[in-house]
User: Fold this.
Amino acid sequence: MALLELRDISKRFGGLQALSRVSMELEEGMIASLIGPNGAGKTTLFNALTGLYQPDAGEIRFQERSLVGMKPDRIASAGISRTFQNIRLFSHMTVLDNVLVGMHSRLHTRLSDILLASQGFHSSEKDARRKAMALIELTGLSGREHEWARQLSYGEQRRLEIARALAAEPKLLLLDEPTAGMNPSEAQSLMALFKELIGKYVKAILLIEHNMRVVMGISDRVHVLDYGEKIAEGRPDEVRQDARVIEAYLGRGSWVENVKS
Assistant:
């Protein structure tokens, strides 16, 4: 049974049909990519998945539970976490504190415990810091935990966003252009991290990505949007050869040449 199911998701903004009857499924253990030209509706779909937008029509089911009408905090608590196309870190907080913020939906310390500095509070705080440090190490930021987030390089800030998203203990991780601005070596390293996450930290990953080397190298399944409609889906090799995708996304013949070069 699918971890995530979308059925005929539609969303309109005034005269713009951003999404039109988009359907897809995501199985456990899968890394899937969502691709398409700028303005195709990819981030709009992520926003619908995470409750920032409510779809005008259609159904979103996660672990057999409908997400339609749920607020973002409840969707996060249900097990979906995301990063953003434009980095949204707390720049004047440390790396460690940024990750700890991501844990808020999983912490159950009572206000009275905090005010009284109870043993339970101290135990919970110690456990949270231990988990945060493990995520900082996992994402390659060891030794940077006490630096301000703004002091990190662009690629390191991307990694910190991923660490913060993982802090919420998601079952499904949504990544919006995670390798944007990275060089080939950095992108390759991030691909290895994504593969490591599956099964150990998350059940599935869905990413929006423009780097075709990343898409072709990591995806079990690729879904293609164009003008808010899904025009193709399949294995990377199938999608790469789809004439509709080649024409809509990069122009006739250019995708294959770009990926092979």
In short: The two ends are 38 Å apart (CA to CA). Strands lie at 4-13, 16-26, 31-35, 57-62, 65-66, 80-82, 172-176, 204-208, 221-226, 229-234.
